[in-house]
From TrEMBL:
<comment type="similarity">
    <text>Belongs to the homoserine dehydrogenase family.</text>
</comment>
<dbReference type="Pfam" id="PF00742">
    <property type="entry name" value="Homoserine_dh"/>
</dbReference>
<comment type="pathway">
    <text>Amino-acid biosynthesis; L-methionine biosynthesis via de novo pathway; L-homoserine from L-aspartate: step 3/3.</text>
</comment>
<keyword id="KW-0521">NADP</keyword>
<dbReference type="GO" id="GO:0004412">
    <property type="term" value="F:homoserine dehydrogenase activity"/>
</dbReference>
<keyword id="KW-0486">Methionine biosynthesis</keyword>
<dbReference type="Pfam" id="PF01842">
    <property type="entry name" value="ACT"/>
</dbReference>
<keyword id="KW-0915">Sodium</keyword>
<keyword id="KW-0791">Threonine biosynthesis</keyword>
<dbReference type="InterPro" id="IPR045865">
    <property type="entry name" value="ACT-like_dom_sf"/>
</dbReference>
<feature type="active site" description="Proton donor">
    <location>
        <position position="205"/>
    </location>
</feature>
<comment type="function">
    <text>Catalyzes the conversion of L-aspartate-beta-semialdehyde (L-Asa) to L-homoserine (L-Hse), the third step in the biosynthesis of threonine and methionine from aspartate.</text>
</comment>
<dbReference type="Pfam" id="PF03447">
    <property type="entry name" value="NAD_binding_3"/>
</dbReference>
<dbReference type="InterPro" id="IPR016204">
    <property type="entry name" value="HDH"/>
</dbReference>
<dbReference type="GO" id="GO:0009086">
    <property type="term" value="P:methionine biosynthetic process"/>
</dbReference>
<keyword id="KW-0520">NAD</keyword>
<dbReference type="GO" id="GO:0050661">
    <property type="term" value="F:NADP binding"/>
</dbReference>
Length: 429
C-alpha cells in the first residue's frame, strides 16, 4: 500500500524519540497498520540545533504552517507544546483533513473544545494519549474500554517531578528546597519548576481526566489548584508518624447526587496502605473507580522522551488504521454536560496540628469549635507539654468550606498559638 505520510511538529525531548521509533520499528509498524509510515517533514524552531536523533536536512523546516497544509500529509504529530503556535497548527491540520496526534496537555486543558470542533469539521482524528501520564495507557481506557461503565472517581499522581520531591522528603527527611535542588540536578525538575511545584501541570491533566471520566467539558480554570511549596519536613514527619504519606493528588470525583463533580489538585495525606502510597520517585499512577469495573490502577513512567514517544506511536498507529479503514476514532463526548462544583462543596477530611497552651479546658474549647462548624473529630492526640504542646486532630468527612471556616476560627482562639499545619486526608474512605 502507499505510505501514510507523517509531519512532525517539534523535535525536542519527545519528538526526537518519535523519529527514532518511527525508524527502528518501521517494519513492525507497517505490518500492524497495513501500510508503511513515512516521515515527510519535521518542523522546528532552530534549524541548526544539535539533535538527539539524526534527521535528513531536507526534512527539516521552520515553516510549520506550510508543512501541515501540504496535500500529501496524512498525519500531523504535534510535540511543540504550549498554546501558540500549537493551536493554530493543529486547527489548520484538522481543517486540511489530516489526523492529529498531540501530547499537549496545556492546550487541551485550555481550549480542547476548539481542537475537537476542528476535528469534527475536518472529519479527522484527534488523539492525545501522551498528554496525561506519559507512557501509561490511561486515556484510551477511559475513552474506550470504560465507555460502557460509570466512572465515579479518578485519583492520581500525575506529576513525576512533585512525586520525586515528596518521595525524597519522605524517605530522607529533606526540606522542600533541598529535595527540589536534587530533582533539578538529576533532571527531574526544570530550572523554573513553577509549572510542576505549583500544580499547573497536574491541573491541566486533571481537567483532561475529568472531561473524559464525566463526559463533560472541563478546562484548567475549573480545577482547584494548590502546589507543594509550603510543605515542610515537619508536615512529612507528622504524616509518617500517623501512618500516612503526603502526595500531590489530582482528584476528579462525582458528587454524591451525581449532578456535578469536583476536580482538584492539592497535596494530601494518604494511608501508607493505599496503592498510591507505594508510588515512588518520578513514577505516576492513577486509580480509577468505576461502578461495575470496581477499582483499577494504572502505573508507570509519566514522562521522558521514550516513554512519552511510546504513547505517541500508539496513537499514530490508531489514527493510521482509522484512515485506512475510512473511519474515525471517538469524538468529543460531552453529553452529560455536568459542571464542576466549587471547592467549598467538596467533601474531604483534614489533619490539623495546633500549637496550643497546655492548660485545662483547651481540648474542650477546641472540640466545641469543631462542633460549631459541624465538623466531627475522628482522632485527637496531644504531643509535648508546656510551650511545646501540640494537638493533632484528624476530622471525619466534612465540606471543604466547613473545614476552612473551622481553621479560620481556630486561628482566632487565644489558646491556639498557631495552626502549625493543615492537610487534607484522602484515600481511606
Ligand atoms: N518531555 C516529556 O517528558 C513530556 C511528557 C509528556 C508530554 N510532553 C508534552 O510533549 C510536548 C513536547 O515536549 P518536549 O519535552 O519534547 O519539548 P521540547 O524538548 O522543548 O521540544 C519542543 C520542540 O518544539 C520545537 N518548537 C518550538 N517552537 C516551535 C515553533 N514555533 N515551530 C516549530 N517548532 C517549534 C523546538 O524546536 P528547536 O528544537 O529547534 O528548539 C523543539 O524541537 C509538550 O506539549 C509537553 O507537554 C512532554
Amino acid at each position: 500500500m502507499k505510505p501514510l505520510k507523517v509531519a512532525l511538529l517539534g523535535c525536542g525531548v519527545v519528538g526526537s524519540q518519535v523519529i527514532r521509533l518511527l525508524d527502528e520499528q518501521a517494519a513492525d509498524l507497517a505490518a500492524r497498520i497495513g501500510a508503511p509510515l513515512e516521515l515527510a517533514g519535521v518542523a522546528v524552531r532552530r534549524l541548526g540545533r544539535k539533535r538527539d536523533v539524526e534527521v535528513a536536512p531536507d526534512l527539516l523546516t521552520t515553516d510549520a504552517e506550510t508543512l501541515v497544509a501540504r496535500d500529501d500529509i496524512d498525519i500531523v504529530v504535534e510535540v511543540i507544546g504550549g498554546i501558540e503556535p500549537a493551536r493554530t497548527l493543529i486547527v489548520s491540520a484538522l481543517n486540511n483533513g489530516k489526523s492529529v496526534v498531540t501530547a499537549n496537555k496545556a492546550l487541551l486543558a485550555e481550549d480542547g473544545a476548539t481542537l475537537y470542533e476542528a476535528a469534527r469539521a475536518g472529519n479527522g482524528d484527534l488523539y492525545f494519549e501522551a498528554s496525561v501520564a506519559g507512557a501509561i495507557p490511561l486515556l484510551r481506557p477511559l475513552r474506550e474500554s470504560l465507555a460502557g461503565d460509570h466512572v465515579k472517581r479518578v485519583l492520581g499522581i500525575v506529576n513525576g517531578t512533585t512525586n520525586y520531591i515528596l518521595d525524597k522528603m519522605d524517605t530522607t527527611g529533606a526540606s522542600f528546597t533541598d529535595a527540589l535542588e536534587e530533582a533539578q540536578t538529576l533532571g527531574y525538575a526544570e530550572a523554573d519548576p513553577t509549572a510542576d511545584v505549583e500544580g499547573f501541570d497536574a491541573a491541566a491533566k486533571a481537567a483532561i481526566l475529568a472531561s473524559l471520566a464525566f463526559h463533560s467539558r472541563v478546562t484548567a480554570a475549573d480545577v482547584h489548584r494548590e502546589g507543594i511549596t509550603e510543605i515542610t519536613a515537619t508536615d512529612v514527619a507528622s504524616a509518617k508518624a500517623m501512618g500516612y504519606v503526603i502526595k500531590l493528588l489530582a482528584i476528579c470525583a462525582r458528587s454524591d447526587d451525581g449532578r456535578s463533580f469536583g476536580v482538584r489538585v492539592h497535596p494530601a495525606m494518604i494511608p501508607r496502605t493505599h496503592p498510591l502510597a507505594g508510588v515512588r520517585e518520578a513514577y505516576n499512577a492513577v486509580f480509577v473507580e468505576a461502578e461495575s469495573a470496581g477499582q483499577l490502577m494504572f502505573y508507570g513512567k509519566g514522562a521522558g522522551g521514550a516513554p512519552t514517544a511510546s504513547a505517541v506511536l500508539g496513537d499514530i498507529v490508531a489514527v493510521a488504521r482509522n484512515r485506512i479503514a475510512g473511519t474515525r476514532g471517538p469524538a468529543e463526548s460531552t453529553y452529560a454536560d455536568l459542571s464542576a462544583h466549587p471547592m467549598g462543596e467538596t467533601v474531604t477530611r483534614c489533619h490539623v496540628a495546633l500549637d496550643v497552651a497546655d492548660k485545662p479546658g483547651v481540648l474542650a474549647t477546641v472540640a466545641d469549635l469543631f462542633a460549631k462548624h459541624d465538623v466531627s473529630i475522628q482522632t485527637v492526640r496531644q504531643e509535648g507539654h508546656g510551650d511545646d504542646a501540640q494537638l493533632v486532630i484528624v476530622t471525619h468527612r466534612a465540606t471543604d468550606a466547613a473545614l476552612t471556616a473551622t481553621m479560620e476560627s481556630l486561628r482566632e482562639l487565644d489558646i491556639v498559638r498557631a495552626v502549625a499545619s493543615v492537610m487534607r486526608v484522602e484515600g481511606d474512605d
